[in-house]
TrEMBL record:
It comes from the Eukaryota. It comes from Dicrurus megarhynchus. Signal peptide: none annotated. This is G2E3 ligase. GO terms for cellular component: nucleus. The lineage of its organism: Eukaryota, Metazoa, Chordata, Craniata, Vertebrata. GO terms for molecular function: ligase activity; zinc ion binding. Keywords: Ligase, Metal-binding, Zinc, Zinc-finger. Coiled coil: none annotated.
Length: 116
């Protein structure tokens, strides 16, 4: 609320902004964006289970972790693509298959999950 930054929605992703697609549809600049409340770091050589490419060695805007199993690390673009293909009913962690805590955390981190 105290931030005076403005940005276009298409530019938000490029700038590292987080847009929540749930009520009240808040948007956060990179300085004030929410962070995952998971205190783990990926093991060396950890790969995204969706694209099988290495992930960063820490949590960041472009790297997210499953809050349930804490072993699955994803690229933001990869998990966004999975969410768009799966929809709300079938969206889950590809490793542990958690669908409750995982979906809520991804919503809060700005991943858009359509209802169908």
């Amino acid at each position: 609320e105290d931030c005076d930054r403005w940005f276009h929605l298409p530019c938000a992703k490029e700038g590292g902004c987080v847009t929540e697609y749930i009520t009240p549809y808040s948007s956060y600049c990179p300085e004030h964006c929410p962070e995952q409340d998971v205190r783990v770091i990926p093991e060396p050589g950890t790969e995204c289970p969706i694209c099988m490419e290495p992930v960063e060695d820490r949590r960041s805007y472009r790297t997210l972790v499953c809050p349930a199993c804490k072993r699955a690390w994803f690229h933001r673009d990869c998990i966004q693509g999975q969410a768009l293909r799966a929809g709300a009913l079938y969206f889950q962690c590809p490793l542990c298959r958690d669908d409750d805590e995982f979906a809520v955390q991804m919503f809060l981190m700005g991943i858009r999950i359509p209802f169908r």
